[in-house]
Amino acid sequence: MTKTAIVTGAARGIGLATTELLLEDGWQVAMVDWDADELARATEGRERILALPLDVSKPDQVAEIMTRTKEAFGGIDALINNAGVADFGPIEETDFARWRRVMETNLDGVFLMTQAATPMLRASGQGAIVNIASISGLRASTLRVAYGTSKAGVIQLTQQQAVELGEYGIRANCVAPGPVRTKLAMAVHSQEIIDAYHDAIPLNRYGSEREIAEVIAFLCSHRASYVNGQTIAVDGGFECTGVGLP
Ligand code: NAD
Question: Which intervals hold domain Ketoreductase (predicted)?
Fold first, then answer.
């Protein structure tokens, strides 16, 4: 039977690569992104998709995502909470509005989407949640008070989901990507950060969107049927070097 996923932040970057991989694997995908123009470009000419230009941080829009997905596909087997925003800055320069902007999408969005999707994931009998955190959620740095804190929250939220929803056959796991050259990363990575990452990462390079998507797809699949509550760093080995984030 065809399996169905909701992918948030699906219009570009890691979310689009994940959508493309799931479609190749035969899934149907509800593609959610608040950037309607980018989403229209990403969905053009594709089959087995539903385009939902909506905001994961707004409860009424999250409810609409679930209603329209259920109408179109009948239910879901996987939820990929990938939508995210980045904002780098030290504590004293991160005003409350900047802090809230990051928390709204990165943390509130994951909570709201998971809560609203749980009935469909329960009904699936083999539901999977994959949350996208970051290596910035695994260790602190001087620039990432909001972003890093939001991603550490996503890692803990994953464990809460795994512990609470396991009895319904729902697995929840987390992917913590290292640096990938997406629009999000390139807006906050200075040349200094790029050079430092190249030096520090054992594979001496940034990852690709597809390399992150491969692990997300694995965690959604039956191949990961006994993997639950884990955070997998997909970072070229950066996390085990002990080197600080640039
Ligand atoms: P990206 O900017 O290319 O894609 C993110 C997408 O999410 C965009 O299309 C954006 O419009 C959408 N989005 C943002 N907020 C939204 C909201 N509230 N509702 C709906 N859609 C929303 O970025 P990316 O690098 O592909 O990021 C994907 C995820 O990976 C993010 O959670 C990010 O924090 C995480 N991540 C990225 C990197 C990296 O280096 N690129 C590293 C670690 C983690």
Answer: 3-183
